[in-house]
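Entry type: protein chain
Record version: 2
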Amino acid sequence: MDILWILKRQRQEITGLEINVTGTRRKKDPRYYEDIQVQYIVRGRRLRESSVKRAIELSEQKYCSVRGIFRPEVKVTTSYRIEQEA
């Protein structure tokens, strides 16, 4: 939700946002996630890559409450893809 809010404030024309999350858990107890991969798929018209990248960074570093509950040793990698629509 943060990403949509930020992009709308940047006057980006968003038509969709999909987030795919995968991860690997430890084999020993406690079986928390060791690494997590987050892929954002942003759809819209005339989207600026710099705006999308900045919105994701702000969300992850400042606004995302979920990100704050991960253990410090959990490696989180982020990627994004922009799908421009006519």
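Comment: The chain has one domain: 2-84.
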